[in-house]
Specification:
CATH topology: Alpha-D-Glucose-1,6-Bisphosphate, Chain A, domain 4
Structural class: alpha+beta
Helix content: 25-40%
Mean pLDDT: 86
Distance between the termini: 41 Å
CATH class: Alpha Beta
Length: 149
């Protein structure tokens, strides 16, 4: 089953301020408390990050994430592989005063507990996915707001 995402998040900070925060991988665990395992060191094309997420239901979701394309301040694309598999893309639009971050994914559950959750309770994995994203981006937004415009 697919877990598709097309979410938009608005920020009262300029695109470059949001991009600067997005590329600050040292803070990811603060913004996404469900990110239990993460070895990302740099926001660079070709880097592979190993990730483990524990959504509210408590089952682990393990995957690697490779940054495949990047245009600084504008967009980044990644490929995920592991318990979930597929592409993800973040686009930033706006100006020096405000911007919008758009996240799109087309993920499929491949293995692990997320695959079983999808089989036993269709839609539950996708709702959990959306909940993790929205809560994380709420924390991310709060962190961006304290940065200088």
């Amino acid at each position: 089953m697919a877990i598709g995402t097309d979410r938009r998040y608005r920020f009262d900070r300029g695109r470059h301020v949001v991009w600067s925060a997005l590329t600050d991988v040292d803070h990811y665990r603060r913004w996404w408390p469900w990110l239990r395992g993460f070895d990302g060191r740099a926001f660079v094309v070709g880097r592979t990050w190993q990730c483990e997420i524990r959504p509210p239901l408590g089952y682990p979701v393990r995957f690697s994430l490779v940054l495949t394309a990047l245009e600084a301040g504008v967009m980044v694309e990644a490929q995920l592989d592991g318990d979930i598999h597929g592409p993800a893309r973040v686009d930033l639009s706006g100006d020096d005063r405000a911007c919008e971050l758009r996240l799109r994914t087309d993920l499929a559950s491949v293995s692990g507990p997320v695959r079983w959750v999808e089989r036993l309770a269709p839609g539950l994995a996708e709702r959990g996915h959306d909940q993790v994203l929205d809560a994380g981006f709420g924390r991310f937004r709060a962190a961006v707001l304290v940065r200088s415009p």
